[in-house]
Amino acid sequence: MRKYLFLTLTLLLICSIGYSQSTTANNVPGGNKFLGFDAAQAIDFRTNDINRAKLMDNGNITVNTYTYNRAGFFGLSQDPDFFNLGLQSPFTLLHLNGDNPNGAPEQLGFRDWMRYGILFTHNQDMMYVGPRRIGDDVTDVWAVCSMR
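User: That's the sequence. What structure does it adopt?
Assistant: Structure tokens below.
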């Protein structure tokens, strides 16, 4: 009897935790199946029903007066407001965001060539690590820090 009680409680606990899903039938990948959407829509990643990460769809963003397409940019943030403030979204291919007042990461010092690297924003400070195209077949590696 204890086995059945333990098994029942275990199954109830597992079923009450939550679930994951994908666009595949029965969540089994293969063929032309994928995780995501056919239409232009971002993919949200949530824990405890709070946005923690987002893979962006097509759409322009303006950061420090530079406007460009943010398609494919990925943002990871412990601050859920980062994804809820409209244009406050990932600025670069990989954007790691910490605590910022009102969820707004630092933009001062950002340049349009920074969109292809890794950006860290926290406490109204910004740090970038990544490539900068100088000319045809000439690319430098840059580390940039902007603090208030």
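The CA atoms of residues 106 and 124 lie 5 Å apart.
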